[in-house]
Every structure is written in C-alpha cells, then in structure tokens.
Description:
By secondary structure, the chain is α/β, with parallel strands linked by helices. Helices cover 27% and strands 30% of the residues. It has helices spanning 92-109, 115-121, 175-189, 232-243, 298-312, 329-335, 348-360, 373-383, 385-388, 404-413, 425-437; strands at residues 11-19, 25-29, 32-36, 44-52, 56-66, 137-145, 150-156, 163-165, 204-211, 218-224, 248-255, 269-273, 277-281, 284-288, 319-323, 340-345, 366-370, 392-395, 417-422, 440-448, 458-465.
Amino acid sequence: MENKVYKKNDILNVLVTDLDNDGNGIGKVDGYTLFIKDTYPGDECLVKIMKAKKSYAFAHLEQVVTPSKLRVDAPCPKAKACGGCQIQGMSYEGQLSFKENKVKNNLVRIGGFDADFIDSIWEPIIGSEVPFRYRNKAQYPIGYDVKQGKVIAGFYAGHSHNIILVEDCLLGPEENKDILKAVFRWMKECRISHYDAANKLSGLRHVLIRKGFTTGQIMVCLVVSSQKIMSKEKEEKLAILLSGIEGMTSISYSVNTEDTNVIMGDNYTCIWGEPTIEDYIGELRFKISPLSFFQVNPAQTVKLYGKALEYAALTGGETVWDLYCGIGTISLFMASKAKVVYGVEIIPQAIDDAIENAKLNGLDNTVFLVGKAEEVLPREIKADEEKAHPDVIVVDPPRKGCDSECLNTMLSMSPDRIVYVSCDSATLARDLRILVDGGYELVKATACDMFSQSVHVETVVLMSRVK
Ligand code: SAH
C-alpha cells in the first residue's frame, strides 16, 4: 500500500513501540516511522510532525493520551531541557532492559550473530544500586542568563551552546550546589565576570568539581580565560569561601585562553590544600589531579572490571596485554592475579598516571607503553617471545572501536582468551565479527550500567580461541 503523505505540522495519534539508540521513542502510522523525543514504548500519544522526510519524520510530543507502564516522573525538573539524562522519565528496570536490548540488537544486526546464540551466552545486565548521585565529576559551564539577569551554572542543552540552569544535578553529589553558591559569591565580591567569547568578555569559563566517594575528598578547579583574572587577594578570598565545605581538599585554577570545546587548560595552579585528591576503585588507590582521567562511576567500574577479571580467568602465571589502558585501571585490576601486564595508551599523561598508580599500589609487574595500540603492538612483539604470546588480551577502546591493524595483530598473537570491554556496542559488534572470522568464538557477554539515566551502556565480552 502506498504511504499516505504526511507533512510538517500534521498532528497524529501514535503508539510508541520501540526506542532508537539515542532514547527517542519510535512509532509507526501506516508504515510511516516517527521519532519522538521524551516518549517511551507503550505510550499512546498525540504528536506533531516537525520535520518530514519520505519514509520517516521527527515529531514533537503534544500530549500523552495513555502513558506507558515504563513512565515515571523524572525527579529532576530540568530533565527534558538538559541533554544529559535522555531516559530519566523511564523506570530503572525499563532503562536496563532498553540497554540490554540495544547491545543484543547491535550484535545481531551489525555483528551478524544469531539472536538465539547471543541469548545463550548472555548474562543479565549488571544494574546499579544507586542510579542517582553516582558521578564523582562535574564540569559546570558558567554563563549569563539574560532573562534572569544573572550568572548561572548548568549544562549545555542538547547539542547547543545554550546553558540550562541546573543548580543541583541529580547525578552528582549534593555538595556541588554549595560549591557553586560559594563560587557565585566569590564572583560577585571580586567582580569577576563569566567568560563570553562572542562579546570578548574574559572571566570564569567552567567549574570542575571532583569528589572521592570512598575518601570523601573534594577538589574544585576553576577554569578561567586569562591569568589576569586571578590575584593573591582573589585567591585568598576563594579559599576562605570554599575551604569550609566538608571534605574540601584541593582548590586550584587552570587558565584556558583558547576558544574551543576543550574545557581544561594545559596545566593548573593549586591555591589551597593539596594539588591532588585520592580515591579508590575497589581495593586500588588512585591519585587524581584536575587534569587526570578517572572513571566517573567507581561503584559500577568495580563491577565492570571485576567481570573483565572474571572472564580473564587468571591464575597467577599469565602474560596479559591491556590495550587502550588509560590510567591503567584494568591493568592494575589484573596485575595481582597475573605474572606480567603490558598496558598501551596513546596519551602520555595517562601513562604517567598509570605508572604512578602502579607504584602507589605496590604492583611491580606492570609495564606501560605510550603510543597507538596498532603501532606499539606490532613493534613490541617482534623482539620479545613473551610479549608475542600472551595468555590474555584485554581491550577497552574508545567509541570508534579497535583499529583493524590492531585486531589483525591480536589475531596473529593467538592468545587463549580475548576480553573486549566496550562503550559502543555498534563498533563492538563490528570488531567481534572480525575476531570470530579470525578463529575466535564468543563464550560469554554481559552489559553494565555505568551511566544510569543516560542511553550509554558498557559491554564486556569473553572470547576464546577455537582449538
Ligand atoms: N580502561 C581505561 C579507560 C579506557 S578509555 C581506564 O580505566 O583508565 C579508552 C582509552 O583509549 C583512552 O584513554 C584513550 O586515550 C585511549 N586511546 C584512544 N585511541 C587509542 C589508540 N589508537 N591506541 C591506544 N590508546 C588509545
């Protein structure tokens, strides 16, 4: 049957049956597909077409006629306007099953694996006991709200540069609100502006806040657009206003003069307390500076990397490679159960942190190498037999997945097991297909919810070499 032609501003009644990978509801009317933000499977709603294409359209939710059973009242009043929590309006069980299905669908659709086979190796998704206030790091952009006539802190709405006022983000600790209040007071008393590149206003760009959930230590780093903004007097004033907050351990600033999306400057100056804070992931201790990478949800990281460790099945004598190792979290997790762990990471500062973290934890059987995995691996295995024949290779690449040169080198090393940790199940599926075609089989897989309320999901897969 020929599709009826729908156009902009048409109002339609639609039953939402699915979610796309970004968390938008999907419904069909006469075979015509509608993508509707802020709707969930089971919603019957009236929607208005905003942008019509030949076979699909983006529509705006006008009214929920019959709500889905998955719907809950989003606890954050800014949930819709702020782009951070795409699925806060869905029950936590609903979120978990959405994430599980998203991964499985990608493995079937992109990886070409059989759906029943995936079900047979699948372990239930690892949910979180605390789906709110789990983030140990927040970076608030500072801007000016013309309507309210005041400086605000919040988050960028959707994919825009407009800042939505969010005084108390429900993903972060409650102290963030008090810290922001103190910073605003400091700006007022010291006559410090917000930064505005378009109007050539130099001032405060971002407030970075980190809290060690285990240690209770808090770090605040102000990102300013010019060194001139700071002075001894202003620094002292800031220290007075912030140091009374319980747990405050480190106060610093970082100068970033560039007009780009990069938040931090290249270095930072500590003005009160320690230059770093410490925190734990499981038993492991980490030193964290304003510039270091650190997992944002330590409670779930323990579970995810614990699963990776379980899949690696180490007994103490193994040689392990940890590719895309960052600050070495996985390497250190594995080190106490292995003979030696080699970590590879492209960012030199992360490798410096990894080496320091290994020392901090008294682990001396790790070797960290700087460079691209696809370049370091082929080079290193040429000279050294032990390096060339590891028992286990773990990878935890960024969203774009592994480079094909890296995958081919891994195959040539023929480890007994490969453990793939992934933050993007589409590229994961693509890479698993290459490894399976190269002589490996999927043994076990699961997902872990590290970023509750958002559409993101982590996956971990165990593969073993077919004998
Ligand atoms: N497990 C790590 C995080 C991994 S995130 C930890 O807990 O610290 C992915 C990492 O891959 C990032 O640190 C990124 O800098 C690094 N990376 C990106 N491309 C790379 C490449 N081609 N070779 C090696 N590392 C790379």
